Amino acid sequence: MDEQQEQEQQEAKLYFSRNLLEWYHGQKRDLPWRRHRNPYYIWISEIMLQQTRVDTVIPYFNRFIERFPTVESLADAPEEDVLKCWEGLGYYSRARNLQHAAKQVKDEYGGQVPDDRDAVFSLKGVGPYTAGAILSIAFNRPEPAVDGNVMRVLSRYFLIEDDIAKGPTRIKMERLAAELIPEGEASHFNQALMELGALICTPKSPRCLPCPVMEHCSARLAGCETSLPVKTKAKPPRPEERLAALIEGRGGHAGRVLIRQRPSSGLLARMWELPHWPAPPAEGGASAALLPETAAQDRLRRSLLQAGIFARPEGHWMAAEHTFSHIVWTLQVYRCREEEAPALPLAAEGRVPYGAASSPADPGSASASGLADPAAAADYAASSAAGTSPGVYNAGLTASVPADLFAEEPAPAERFADGGGNPEDAGAVRWINRGDMANYAFPNVFLKLLNAYFDEQEGKSDN
DNA sequence: AAATCGGGGTG
DNA sequence: CACCCAGATTT
């Protein structure tokens, strides 16, 4: 690049920074986290915005800071409260990382979000982008905050054709973004950059006419703005057919359905769900949806028994789909009815094996109670499990199940080939009614299924 | 460097 | 419906 080009490049940068900043002051949106310069608010909003659009985040943000107004209140909250507040937002490990980081701030930084690069970086869930966002937006530090919006804007304005999915490209963008920050204006400028990406320089059809920097935008001048940024495509998610059980309680559980808690690591960690297992591949490669219903019900019953849950599938209810980044679940949901446990033994913990092979029946535990009636057994479990809510049912039924029922069970790794983590801390089950849903955090697909079910029940009882 | 982590919007 | 959106952590 000769001297003349270099000078033009410098002018393009100055033009960009000046015009963008001026535009932002006239166009910035009124957002809840922009109404104060509270580093805690900025931090919460940036974690939420990592994954979701502004419109979706706003109600979550408002509820979150109402429920957890300070770092300390977040640090001291029960984890399930934090997860419940995050319910439906996705990427739940971020909620758990956020609370972990709140404890860090409380214990190591006196409850104040640190105004220090290394300290901010050390917080769980805070990476290069979020650290830069907190330091610049909350503390006006001249740090770059390069997210997808910023990379899109910069790749177009400076016509950078590097693949933004690659690591080194982000480093390059950060160097460039840092150069562009006007003296003393890091907070406004970084927000302006992201605001432009969100409102004007959008992925599909950028609105170049109202763009404050269109005159010197290299991509627009070259007519290639819609083909930037260059980004390698993600590989498509793999499909997974699963059989799910909506179990209607009987006796002491009448009007309730059974839910269980997922393991504390992996997919949807510690969230609650209807029990479900991979569907066996049908003959000839047909999908599980085409699996003869009796075969599917038989398989589901085996899986339920294997998990220590006594229930009988009674027919297909509905299908539901749930899309992750890397998997697509198709859930075939069967309505099931709770059955009486054959022998009896109720252990005290309210847990069932989740990923592990079922433990052998413990003859000792069988004498823990002599209750054969499910309602009485539930009462027994509730009364013997201190600190649990009414309706808690101990499905840790290690009772004698005919061994041949398990003859065709797949290996544990196959049964729970969904990213399930440590089986030791999973498998808690509860019988819940609609009101109890407020106490458990569910992924959206199960929220929809449970609401659909309770709606259906209410409709029936009205008639 | 590649895979793991949700859920929603657009055309 | 196909296709798009992304940052931190783990492996």
UniProtKB/TrEMBL annotation:
It catalyses: Hydrolyzes free adenine bases from 7,8-dihydro-8-oxoguanine:adenine mismatched double-stranded DNA, leaving an apurinic site. Its cofactor is [4Fe-4S] cluster. It comes from the Bacteria. Pfam families: HhH-GPD (PF00730), NUDIX_4 (PF14815). Residues 48-199 form the HhH-GPD domain. SMART domains: ENDO3c. CDD domains: ENDO3c, NUDIX_DNA_Glycosylase_C-MutY. Keywords: 4Fe-4S, DNA damage, DNA repair, DNA-binding, Glycosidase, Hydrolase, Iron, Iron-sulfur, Metal-binding. Its EC number is 3.2.2.31. SUPFAM superfamilies: DNA-glycosylase, Nudix. Gene3D superfamilies: Helix-hairpin-Helix base-excision DNA repair enzymes (C-terminal), Hypothetical protein, domain 2, Nucleoside Triphosphate Pyrophosphohydrolase. One of its GO terms (molecular function) is purine-specific mismatch base pair DNA N-glycosylase activity. InterPro entries: A/G_AdeGlyc_MutY, DNA_glycosylase, Endouclease-III_FeS-bd_BS, HhH-GPD_domain, HhH_base_excis_C, MIG/MutY, MutY_C, NUDIX_hydrolase-like_dom_sf. GO terms for biological process: base-excision repair; mismatch repair. Belongs to the Nth/MutY family. Base excision repair (BER) glycosylase that initiates repair of A:oxoG to C:G by removing the inappropriately paired adenine base from the DNA backbone, generating an abasic site product. 8-oxoguanine (oxoG) is a genotoxic DNA lesion resulting from oxidation of guanine; this residue is misread by replicative DNA polymerases, that insert adenine instead of cytosine opposite the oxidized damaged base. Shows a powerful dicrimination of A versus C, since it does not cleave cytosine in oxoG:C pairs. This is Adenine DNA glycosylase. It comes from Paenibacillus borealis.
